[in-house]
Amino acid sequence: MSNEDILNPKQMPHEPEKATLEGKNKFLGFWFFLGGETVLFASLFGTYLALNDSTAGGPGTEELFGLELVFVMTMLLLTSSLTSVYAMYHMKNNNFSKMMVWLGVTVALGFTFLGFEIYEFYHYIHEYEFTFRSSALGSAFYTLVGFHGGHVLFGLLWILTLMGRNAKRGLNLYNAPKFYIASLYWHFIDVVWVFIFTVVYLMGKVG
Amino acid sequence: MSTAVAQKKGFGAFMWDYLTTVDHKKIAHLYLVAGGLFFLLGGLEAMIIRIQLIKPDNEFISAGLYNEMITMHGTTMIFLAAMPLLFALMNAVVPLQIGARDVAFPFLNSLGFWLFFFGGLILNFSWFMGGAPDAGWTAYAPLSTTSPTHGVDFYVMGLQISGAGTLIGGINFLVTIVNMRAPGMSYMRMPLFTWTVFVTSTLILFAFPALTVGLFLMMFDRMFGSVFFDVASGGNVIIWEHLFWIFGHPEVYILILPVFGVFSEVFSTFSKKRLFGYSAMVFATVLIGFLGFMVWAHHMFTTGMGPVANSIFAVTTMAIAVPTGIKIFNWLFTMWGGTIRMTTAMLWSVAFIPTFTIGGMTGVMLAAAAADYQYHDTYFVVAHFHYVIVGGVVFGIFAALHYWWPKMFGKVLNEKLGKWAFWPFFIGFHLTFFIQHFLGLMGMPRRYWKFLDGQGLDTGNLISTIGAFFMALGVIIFLWNVIYTAMKEPKASADPFDGRTLEWSIPSPPPFYNFKQTPLVRGLDALWIEKSEGKKAMTPAEPLGDIHMPYGSIIPFVMSFGLFIAGFGFIYQVDNPVWLSLVFIGMGITLGSMFVRSVKDDLGYHIHKEDLEKGDGQV
């Protein structure tokens, strides 16, 4: 396939993200990468589970967490996953402007989530003096949740970069895989949050 | 076209070419040179250790420097020598063996190398900046978290950066092997080296993130005041041991599996026989990879996990002897009845079998948890892992270099000098390490700076040190061989060893696009099939057409350099927050180059059919 066919395809195939060898490689490579990311978060979860009682005389999980806030955050992130599915649906139908709208909604939801998370950390630090350094629980909590938050921020900047770069030229076989794997990444972040919600917050309240 | 072709050029252009290259064959050269230099450095550290232990109560180096030596020797040899040398082989050979024109992600291939390289530099800069890491290559907490110098900080940053490069390399080879195989090359027709690289890459993918997390926790504890490993604040030092070995045990299979592939190729080629039990070999490789994730706690028998955990990990460890035994016997049966040529590559491979079997037997001894309480942290363990790592990985790398040198550099290494290098190394190796089993059984602990007179340890240690000098002699002769071959030996043909696999079907060294036409693979040992039917070359799977090639790029170098700068910022911001500026500058460079990479289209270029026809492959 010539470069011209890739940048200005006469007709978009049904799965533009896998139409070129480069797209196929990116698709598969990114799945492998997510496999590695799974081990990364599994290690962080393991560390957290080993230390979730280590309060060193400071506040414990039951005292700290409020499920209301976490529920709102969960809803925000789950919804953003859904809106990124809409975006990919429109990508496959070669509807660039609708894809951009839904990606925009996804990004907005993501930033709102991040805002709540920053508020949450601020709250723990100022109301409870529960910090990264105050106890092993604090170290483990901020590391696990902070790693997730860092991933959210990176994903947001990534999607914004893609949107900005391609705003003027529309979809082609070169950028479709890029949008697609960014959405895969976003789903992964969402799945990790589901586990954080369960293991950290629910078990922290009930266990 | 002319932009991409290497013409006669000056030193600057030569450097620029290697700094920006995304060609897997040139990246293999980079890995080989960098890994080779680190191997010499690690070897020098080993010599200093052995000189310190040449006699009782020796004062050759101080206790503190000795700790730095053992730490840097282990860390350098594992992460900065063995890994990159294997990556050199993987890069040089795997795309050729599967009939591909490059790896799946040429850009990431280059990035992986430069991350490794700058990570290695950071680690070694520690020598000149207040002292090297001194908590052992395993860096157990709290020894590592309380080590007073910046040494362990260099360990953390260096391994974090080079580990990221390794992970990228692993993913790259996985996708390459899945997606880039030539037509007809089904999984069960892949050469065994490619298979072992495939399994090794899987292990890299699932093992390295555990190290990443462990290093992050240590970084946070040492540099940002977290308390993961601070028992007074509720921390738990055992977490480090688990994370380290969840990575660390698969790591030893990451090292050994590719050389198992090398030996399979060498035995088959130089016995002029198809590999005996090919499918059993594939199965054994996958099984070793799988079991490799279930044995990590055998490094922790004396930590106090209790009899149940110890028993489980003892049994899974012993189970690995089964697939490994399958391999040993299949290699022997491959040679059985074959037309054997004792080339240097074959010599290293044959020497590997008894050596590695001894290492395997002591491995089973160590796996017996109750007995391990005696062996733990003695020279018995040191002897064991040098038998498997030197006797396996280093012998394998030497075998592979002699075997594939013509494909990498266009000349066959001199056979006579090759054998002269082999014998002192082989004899020296056994002199050095065989005696250490007994030193260990007599109670000599590992990592001790001195031993005292009159405990029966003098002779053993003297022999061991003498052996180390023999090994050094072998390495020097090998280096001389490299220079000699480059100066004196004639150019090699495409197929100097009567090979069986696809890499021998193209010139030595191959043109930068590897295959003018993608070959059609009709079975295992694809080239051998064609040769046995009287054909001289592979049947092409496609008509001659334009070839797509990637552009080179300096971005991987810049991206890695940014992390190198940021690494120093992280290390020194503990002393003075001013150093945080380096973190921002470095991360800015890295994230900025990621941004540039994202927004700049890079579609590569095409070599035109007409140019291919004109030069008969020599564009």
Summarize the structure in short:
The complex is a heterodimer of chains A (207) and B (619). Helix content of chain A is 78%, strand content 0%. Chain A is mostly helical.
How would you sum up this structure, described in words?
- The complex is a heterodimer of chains A (207) and B (619).
- Chain A has 207 residues and is mostly helical.
- Chain A has one domain: Cytochrome c oxidase, subunit III, four-helix bundle (Four Helix Bundle (Hemerythrin (Met), subunit A), Up-down Bundle), CATH 1.20.120.80.
- Chain A contains 7 helices and no strands.
- In chain A, helix 4 runs antiparallel to helix 7 and helix 6 runs antiparallel to helix 7.
- The longest helix of chain A is centred in the middle third of the chain and has 33 residues.
- Chain A is elongated, with a radius of gyration of 20 Å.
- Chain A starts with a helix and ends with a helix.
- The mean pLDDT of chain A is 95.
- By secondary structure, chain B is mostly helical.
- Chain B has one domain: Cytochrome c oxidase-like, subunit I domain (Cytochrome C Oxidase, Chain A).
- Helices cover 65% and strands 1% of the residues of chain B.
- Chain B contains 19 helices and 2 strands.
- In chain B, helix 2 packs parallel to helix 4 and helix 14 runs antiparallel to helix 15.
- The longest helix of chain B has 35 residues.
- The radius of gyration of chain B is 24 Å and the shape is globular.
- Chain B starts with 10 loop residues before the first helix and ends in a 5-residue tail after the last helix.
- The N terminus of chain B is likely disordered.
- Classes of the chains: A mainly alpha (207), B mainly alpha (619).
- Chains A and B meet through helix 1, helix 2 and helix 6 of A and helix 5, helix 6, helix 7 and helix 18 of B.
